Amino acid sequence: MSDSEFENRDTNTGHEKEKPKERYIPPEPSDDQEVLFGGGISSGINFDKFDNISVKVSGEDVVQPVNSFEECQFRHLVADNLKKSGYKKPTPIQKYAFPSIMKGRDLMACAQTGSGKTAAFLVPIINSLLAEGCEPIVSNEFVEPQAVIISPVRELTIQIFTEARKFAHGSTIKCAIAYGGTVAIHQAQKLMRGCHILVATPGRINDFVEKGRVSFASVRFFVLDEADRMLDMGFLPAIEKMLEHPTMVPVGQRQTLMFSATFPEDIQRLASKYLNNYLFIAVGIVGGACSDVEQVIYEVSKFEKKAKLVEILRTFEGEKQLALVFVEQKRTADFIAAYLSENNFPTTSIHGDRLQSQREQALCDFKSGYMPTLVATAVAARGLDIKNVTHVINYDMPKTVDEYVHRIGRTGRVGNRGKATSFYDASFDFPIAKDLIKILQQCGQEVPCFLSDSAPTSGGFFRGRECQAYGGKDARKFNNRNEENDNDDNGFENDNQHSNSFEPAAQEEEECW
């Protein structure tokens, strides 16, 4: 039984605990320009280092990259919104994604976390919709969005929606959102006002499609963000259900875009079925950590963690910095948040058992600095882009190095410097040691002796799903290899060349974000 499953059971009866329900209606998003354009992360002191990151592109008729926004010839409104957002020049993924999407190509894009993936697909989509001048299609019963963007978790969905509104600000483009934990009829009513761009979680959008509130008949762009996370969470059937829906525009008549930090085997197989003559873009070390994050690892037993956490937080007490603390269990998140608050560190927490209103309030308090420390389980690890997060602390080490990379990627974003501190207990964390050493070495950072001593001498690579074949390489190149090359690395990213056929059951909408 997993930790999350255990935590959802009544300790007296052993039965599944019924989750509290609420009729939550999110507040209306602000149209104030200061709010809209002030929440993003500006490019940092190391932004120019992005120019040295290697980019590999494969596919037929590869599109030439751009080196400036001016080369893209974006519409004036889009270019102006980019400038207001603090964008000065495109990141590596944007240099290739912008022209590829604008030329109508399908895309699979791998890039490190914090490298501008969201803008890489939103900006050209909005620019194309404006160029076409399409009106939102609404009947008396359903809406037909022209762009559908699917995200695995609620908070990331809200974040993408906010970014879409920002880049479309001042235009006729209407953006809408659909996610669980909120009153469905309220979201449906807002949808019926019309929308060009719909950002949604898999469960909620499929619910609207089944009830006839949403049709895919006018989809020009279909985007899967954090695609590997979606498969980890068991959403593959939900994705296929959308792509095979009778109203969905056929392959070749729509653009399908997949963005993520990793692309394991089963996602590349999905791409071969639902993408048309796509380009594969891999930026930097796929699955690697950002070199702008200083990684520090302490050997700390589970009984010493609380004191060590307080010691670290005191080092930047009084500064306008945000600290994100990751734990493995929901009950630990609440316990540590209460403990820190008692020690005069204003702290809040987020995890899967909190109501949606509580989750959103916790993040609001954290972003504003009212609660400068946030204790979170893995629900917050993917995709969050929060200004002024200068320190990530792994109170509990994750089970896989992929999760580690995504956690520490909440800081050191878009060329800004950040710090990640991790508590390592050899009694529990030794399975991740070998991969952790590899990540540190790739970033040119010091490997502690205790980590080398506790690392398994063979095997034991706990990367997660991308331990499967292909990893960050183009599956088509792998499949087209000649027989005489069969003895090389076979396109596997990791040393343990095996395939994991386990498919997790889809998590409940209430369990994920």
UniProtKB/TrEMBL annotation:
It comes from the Eukaryota. PROSITE patterns: DEAD_ATP_HELICASE, HELICASE_ATP_BIND_1, HELICASE_CTER, Q_MOTIF. Residues 308-455 form the Helicase C-terminal domain. InterPro entries: DEAD/DEAH_box_helicase_dom (IPR011545), Helicase_ATP-bd (IPR014001), Helicase_C-like (IPR001650), P-loop_NTPase (IPR027417), RNA-helicase_DEAD-box_CS (IPR000629), RNA_helicase_DEAD_Q_motif (IPR014014). Keywords: ATP-binding, Helicase, Hydrolase, Nucleotide-binding. One of its GO terms (molecular function) is RNA helicase activity. Residues 1-31, 473-513 are annotated as: Disordered. It catalyses: ATP + H2O = ADP + phosphate + H(+). SUPFAM superfamilies: P-loop containing nucleoside triphosphate hydrolases (SSF52540). The keyword Nucleotide-binding applies. Its EC number is 3.6.4.13. GO terms for biological process: regulatory ncRNA-mediated gene silencing. Residues 98-281 form the Helicase ATP-binding domain. Residues 67-95 form the DEAD-box RNA helicase Q domain. Residues 1-25, 473-484 have a biased composition (Basic and acidic residues). A motif (Q motif) lies at residues 67-95. Belongs to the DEAD box helicase family. PANTHER family: ATP-DEPENDENT RNA HELICASE DBP3. This is RNA helicase. It comes from Cimex lectularius (Bed bug).
